[in-house]
Amino acid sequence: MSRSTKTDKARLLNAAHGLLARNIELPEAAKRLSREFDMSLRQAYRYLEQAAKLGHPVPVEEASVPITLKLPPRTVHMLRSYAASSGLTLGEIVTRALRAFLSAVRRHG
Fold first, then answer.
1. Measured between alpha carbons, how far is 30 from 41 in angstroms, rounded to an integer?
2. How many whole angstroms separate alpha carbon 23 and alpha carbon 18?
3. Which of left, alpha, beta for 56 (phi over 0: left; psi -120 to 50: alpha)?
4. Is this prediction's pTM over 0.85?
5. Residue 23: helix, strand or coil by DSSP?
6. Tell me: the pLDDT tens digits for 19-41?
7. Rounded to 5 degrees, what angle do the CA atoms 27, 4, 58 make?
8. How far, in Å, CA of 17 to CA of 3, rounded?
9. Helix extents (H) in the chain
10. Distance from the first to the final alpha carbon of the chain
11. Is the distance from CB of 74 to CB of 33 less than 8 angstroms?
């Protein structure tokens, strides 16, 4: 069995939130979640518990695709330093930088 992605978890939390928002009794909500997403009742209860604590739907992020980049050592050092100080992942920093760059290129190209 493969691990859930962040996207999978967000969808499950949102499904659990939807059931709770419709005031479906917890045992029935767990059964529905379990059947719909092919998970154990125990896991369904966990998602319902998390959804109840959040109190709102969560954004579903686009799935990530791994790639390999070759960067100069100095750039890697700066990237890692920024990641450590900002709390962002390397992937998030690179994604934001590339989006900003590509948006600027489209505007001027």
1. 6
2. 9
3. beta
4. no
5. coil
6. 999 999 999 999 999 999 999 99
7. 70
8. 21
9. 6-21, 26-37, 41-54, 73-86, 90-108
10. 46
11. no
Query: Exposed, middle or buried: residue 86 (CB in 10 Å: 0-12, 13-18, 19+)?
Result: exposed
Distance CA 48, CA 52 (A): 6
Who's near 7: CB < 8 A, 6+ residues apart?
Answer: 60, 61, 62, 63
91-107, pLDDT tens digit by residue?
A: 999 999 999 999 999 88
The full length of the chain comes to 109
| Rounded Cα distance, 88 and 83, in Å | 5
Q: What are the angstrom distances between the C-alpha of 60 and each of 9, 12, 13, 47?
A: 9, 10, 10, 15
Nearest to 18 by CA among 42, 46, 52: 52
